[in-house]
Amino acid sequence: MTTIAWISAATVAGGVISIAIAAMFALSAPASWVPALVSFAIGTLLGAVFLEILPHAIGSGGNLQALFATVLAGILGFFVLEKLVLWRHCHIEDCEAHDLHADPSDGGRSGLMIIIGDGFHNFVDGILIAAAFLQGTELGVVTAAAIIAHEIPQEIGDFVILLHSGYSKIAALALNLLSSLAMLVGALLAYFTLQAAQEWIGTVLALAAASMIYVAVADLIPGLHRRPELHATAQQVALIALGVALIWFVGDVVRTA
Length: 257
Prior knowledge:
Helix content is about 80%, strand content about 0%. The protein has one domain (about 5-30, about 35-255). The protein has helices at about 5-30, 35-60, 65-85, 95-100, 110-135, 135-165, 170-195, 200-225, 230-255. The protein is mainly α.
């Protein structure tokens, strides 16, 4: 497969798979399953960052201090964006965004806002996937897998907000599918842009690492602290480790293929 074929397949499959699984859980599965998905997503995100993305970014040949400064700037930038509600991640049913937007009488405004924010999020994810595949198929596959894993709990949150805003189940599904197209748009734009600017790939990978670290540490991990019981903590640690192990396994399989 060509690089652009890998990128297109990964972004389309990523959007469809994450939304399909999220719809299944949000519309039928018990809410008690969501924390398990969150723990697993944390592992895949952190595994992708520290086992694949940052090592590849360092290997791209850029200035090491500038690379880590980009990661730091990216984390601070995502913090500011979230504060401004330009990028609102929501992963579990009782999170902050659901508390703010659970009133079904708002005429769908909160649902529309979450879809706009999710569209921007998907656009950036597409850029990150394309940048990873331009660096190598192995990194692209691992990055796409991590993005799909963290998209699932986020999409569950989006479904709940849309339903609480008065949208029907069919409308919620259609809007989420529409926002997922932004991932393909971002990926194709990045492919044709980054082809002519290979020196920017390390910087984009650093931003990918920053976004994944921020999502895992700022958005996902705090929700786990709401269940401080020993058995819950043990389950969370096991699922995080499973996510990391999956990233290591996928990377190892691709390297030896």
